[in-house]
Design goal:
By secondary structure, the chain is an alpha/beta fold. Helices cover 37% and strands 18% of the residues. Its cofactor is pyridoxal 5'-phosphate.
Length: 294
Amino acid sequence: MNDSILDLVGNTPLVKAKRVFQKEGVELYFKLEGQNPGGSVKDRAAYNMIKSALDRGDIDKNTKLIEATSGNTGIALAMIAGIFGLNIELVMPENSTVERVQTMRAYGAKVILTSADDGIEGSRDFAEEKMNTGEYFMLNQFANDDNWQAHYKTTGPELWFDTNKRITHFVSSMGTTGTIMGSSTYLKEKNPEIQIVGVQPTDDSRIPGIRKWPEAYLPKIFNPKKVDRVLEVSEKEAIEMSRRLAEEEGIFAGMSSGGAATAAIRLCNELESGLVVSIICDRGDRYLSSELFE
């Protein structure tokens, strides 16, 4: 038995690719972050950011939280803020899927929608303006060390021990970059030879959850020295792989996971031997109102 739903954050399963990739000497595993209680990898960072802020006394029950999000972090923050009895407002582009907005509201958060034309950058600017009034506290996932440290404390060790220390390559989509920064820091401490591969969209692609940030919006927690290689994937490739993961592997996930899997398979095809792990960021059910699975 578990004392709280928060006990279920982390320790997500690894599943070996069976149909989308097969090659003698090379193993590809998917880490199913949709198995977190809030349905995505962002549960880890959200829990660590809120719990650490509470422990330090940065926030309390009277604090009004505000955060810009493209979706998964907002859902995770809404869930965990509700558990701790905190008020939170989440700011996101108005073209976010209805499932994401409704899920945040179901957890008790207030959702503010900003212009789709301004993207997540516009949502970040709006949240910054609100915070600067002095009435709000922003966790700021893009510059908060508690974000990447969540993965240093949990994701990295899971990758190391659940592969029996055999992992050779780690592939992760890059959004706030918390997952790849924290996991890289831990894995490189254990074995500097492990290759860390980040995934970005091509210039003409829009893939929710993966970004190639303008310089002014580059996450402050990002350290390029912790990423050995960056692979770019197209929107078309990410969509096709998301559909293949569902149809061929029974892994129902969003487009960023399809993008990461595309890059991971490209990498695996280059290798003669190795054990590659690719992050499956979330579940596909929060994209059903989009065109992803049409």
